Predict the structure.
Amino acid sequence: MFQQLFKSIQEKVIVTHEEMELCKTFFIPKKLRKKQTLLQEGDICIYNAFIEKGILRSFYIDEKGNEHLVQFAIEGWWITDLSSFLTNSNSIYTIEALEDSELLLLTTAAREALMNQIPMFERYQRLLLQNAYIANQARINSALTETAEEKYINLGNAYPGIVKRVPQHMIASYLGLTPETLSRVRKQISNKS
Amino acid sequence: MFQQLFKSIQEKVIVTHEEMELCKTFFIPKKLRKKQTLLQEGDICIYNAFIEKGILRSFYIDEKGNEHLVQFAIEGWWITDLSSFLTNSNSIYTIEALEDSELLLLTTAAREALMNQIPMFERYQRLLLQNAYIANQARINSALTETAEEKYINLGNAYPGIVKRVPQHMIASYLGLTPETLSRVRKQISNKS
DNA sequence: AAATTCTCTTGATTTAAATCAATTAAAATT
DNA sequence: AATTTTAATTGATTTAAATCAAGAGAATTT
């Protein structure tokens, strides 16, 4: 159950065997079936979720009723609504499993306690955030400057696993494109080669 | 010289007077005149800069020669190329002062040492990153889903200080718009009221 | 103060992507 | 297996923003 999490931690910081065992006690294992949700829009996000197995997405519905895909997350990644989680505010996002998934959940309190008891866990969290920050910066640049075709090709290169695993209209939504546009972009690409 | 920095730290974590004094010794004060750069594209970003006074921007030039504004930063904010800073890679960004500015610089080594000697500084850094992550998430949503007019109005509401202080074509670049489009958007808004 | 450079505005035209609409294809449910 | 639902494709049309082009207004520099 904890393989992916331990791997993720050990890639970033050095922790003792005892710390790892202690660490386990803070997490709540949880299985989600496809289409089940971890967080409903309007609720307060009380969990930081690590994905041992499966794939999830977070999304929101705007005033006009359009759905916007905010994040995908697969094995070895974390997912939450950080804003809601940290400030106890009502989330505008829904977090949903796209396949049957196995999660390890960390409540706000458990996360705080873990960071206080194992300083290396705070470092681990900071390093994760640094990487997420860099990835988001790249996504901003992509969203502001690239054409539809460039966005799709670059996403495929950066995260081939996700593009293959997820319905096409969700990829379109993640890139800020309509499903029709993405369909045409894909056709154009395949005609070129 | 350290007023803004101390204010920023004390807003986020609790530190002793001694820790604050120790903290000072890790920073290198630096003044930049308008148009001078802290980082040149192609160089390795060796500083994490805190802004005591002034305003800076980071930007890059794409293959087609177009300039893209990545970030603004004013008093009380940090600026760096995190990717270059953390991985010692060559930066694609240039960081430049838009007004005469006063900075406090932290090298990679000084930052590591500071985090090891004052654990609350690591927490401070993590909290900064959390906020930056949330802000970037909002910027992604804006870039992917909002019209030019919405982008401009929302930026003005979120950061009135920046919109007033900076040339209009830089705001346009930050929002991923051409200067012509922003000019027309502003005209439309003023015609409405 | 004059000259130069930089910044913003306005108009005409083009273009990439969205929208609207219909059909086919695939997946899920009964 | 048949039916229903969901997803993807294709075509016609519209639209928001980009591009091209020129001129006006500010701000720096000499």
Notes: The mean pLDDT of chain A is 96. The first strand of chain A starts at residue 28 and ends at 32. Chain A touches chain B through 28 residues (CB under 8 Å). Chain A has two domains: 3-145, 146-193.
